[in-house]
User: What shape does this take?
Amino acid sequence: MEIIISNDSDIPIYEQIKDQLKTKIISGELVSGELLPSIRSLAKDLRCSVITTKNAYEELVKEGYVKTIPSKGFYVSTVNKELAKEEQLNKIQDLLESAINIAKMNNFSQKVISDMLNILYEEDK
Assistant: This one.
């Protein structure tokens, strides 16, 4: 399983791990009932602390994406994908609202922001 962490990011490493696992679950790359790597194994693979991976898994458990079975490990939970996608859309909306507020405060036109969004969106393809 590929997880990429950046030490240069402002986002804490446990959150980077959590977000990438959540994305894999929502997209179906990780399926319900699938066993996740152990905390120790994932920490070793990512060259980070076991506390970091433990925090990521605990957050996923709290959010309902992962369940833990004592002495057996962490498993992908059955997730309502529509609800999960709605949650992600809400995050995108919040971020876009923040960006629009910044644009308006600096008198950037809607066209400039729209063009920027189109360019950034196409770059990831």
About this structure: The beta strands are 66-69, 73-76. The mean pLDDT is 93. The CA atoms of residues 101 and 107 lie 10 Å apart. The longest helix spans residues 81-105.
